[in-house]
Design brief:
about 270 residues, mainly beta, Porin, eight-stranded antiparallel beta barrel, two-stranded antiparallel ribbon, 4 helices, elongated
Length: about 270
Amino acid sequence: MMRKLLLLIATAFMGTAAVQAQIYDFGISGGVGGYVGDIQPFVSITNVKPGGGFWFKYNLNPHWGGRIGYMTTDVGASDKNGNSLWQVNRNLNFNTYISELYGTVEFNFLRYITGHRKYFHTPFIFAGLSWFRFNPTTVINGRLVELQPLGTEGQGLDVFPGRPFYNLTSFAIPFGLGYRWIFYKFHSLTFELGARYAFTDYIDDVSQTYPGADLLLAERGQLSSLLSDRSWELGFNLREPFSQRGVNTFNDLYWFAGVSYIFTINSGRCPRFR
């Protein structure tokens, strides 16, 4: 009786493994990235920078799958390209290198089976969670300067108890859509557009109000004062303390559009995929 029970369990386990021994995708991505925030409030396809990454995906069935990966891109913007005179006169700019680890769940609208003649393409959507690093910089007098340590909005000063120095790491919510197509056996391509809604408003070092040039000069030094309010470079008077510098109603967002080459490994025949 025990032998029959063990045999039954082993058979069930092996059958389940055969069914669930599934398909794994390995992808390499290339494309462009951009940003939306205080310095660039709208998506712009003219201000993009190159990016790329790699990822691994487990296909649960022809419709659902889970993906983890690494992505990196540069983003940046300048008030000189702004849509309003107020923004142009503010005269701020930044650039940052973003590196991200992410995990997403994907849903195929059509049945998608690698190697199948009928189910070889599908549009899809995805959403998940990511962790990323950033470090906004700018250039003054030919010198590259990191902005976060300068506290350009008075971060860390007793006068602004609600403004600690922001972290250079944060979480984000990735979401987007795409299209995948098998072009030869276990080789396929994916075209996708994804956005990341960040849990920080400081990717561009801009969020709230001016702390005042004199205060920063006394507490943080000349460089912090000069880079907090750069309207002086255009010949304008410096902004009054507590006047608007940014808008903290919404956090920043960055996006990536690209193409991935995917190689698929099928760990075993799977009836439910056929």
